[in-house]
Amino acid sequence: MTTTVRPREPRVSVVIPARNEARNLEIILPMLPAVHEVILVDGNSVDDTIATAQRLMPGITVVQQTRKGKGNALACGFEAVTGDVVVMFDADCSADAAEIPRFVDALVAGADVAKGTRYAPGGGSDDITVIRGLGNKGLNMISNLLLRAKYTDLCYGYNAFWADTLPTVGLLSSTLPQPTDGSMRWGDGFEIETILTCRWSAAGFRITEVPSHEKLRVHGTSNLNAVSDGIRVLTSIMHERRRAREVAARARLAPTPVRARPVVEPVAVLDEEAAA
């Protein structure tokens, strides 16, 4: 069996999807720790999002997303990654940059994925309403039942993972064109966090939950709709369950491949709060 050696001091790539977030970038970019690269994925902003980012961080990599939606933006950003570890970071000031080392430490300690959770000790949220909280709880229960998992925060978007896991996840290619009716392709929207979690779980990756505190958006308004996006998340869970079964069925019929086993240089292992 071949092995993939993962470094104890990985190069960290921070991917930030943004659309009209110039005022928030003024706050978050100076707070980021020193990393290998920061990739800003611009969603056709009409303000000075790109100019602001380049002024504050001259070495920032700017990528234009190819369709609409957060899922497509992240896919475009992931394709530009050159580091060992990918950190998904929102541009609305809700993510705490000081938590990035915590996510990276969990990966270096042996996890394939460090999944943020607002519901573990040390985590929390200044933004979850009663309706959103009940919705998240219900979606968590359904996903854990169907995926046979124990996640505490399915829909949270603050996550980090080893870049070598991306080929297994198989996200929708950014090179596909925008649908002619202006709609988004499946996976291009806010359901991306659910799709990633489902595919990480189906792939058998080791997932460690990391406590995280969600802050309030500072400037602008969120594009998230609790009802419509909740329905997309629920649909994603069912879709990904069917997909996982189809992949498993094809795998049973195909010759058994020799799968590379990721190896991290020895360090003290953190307690894992969630397993795929």
Automatic annotation (TrEMBL):
<protein>
    <submittedName>
        <fullName>Glycosyltransferase family 2 protein</fullName>
    </submittedName>
</protein>
<dbReference type="InterPro" id="IPR050256">
    <property type="entry name" value="Glycosyltransferase_2"/>
</dbReference>
<feature type="domain" description="Glycosyltransferase 2-like">
    <location>
        <begin position="13"/>
        <end position="137"/>
    </location>
</feature>
<dbReference type="InterPro" id="IPR001173">
    <property type="entry name" value="Glyco_trans_2-like"/>
</dbReference>
<comment type="similarity">
    <text>Belongs to the glycosyltransferase 2 family.</text>
</comment>
<dbReference type="InterPro" id="IPR029044">
    <property type="entry name" value="Nucleotide-diphossugar_trans"/>
</dbReference>
<dbReference type="Pfam" id="PF00535">
    <property type="entry name" value="Glycos_transf_2"/>
</dbReference>
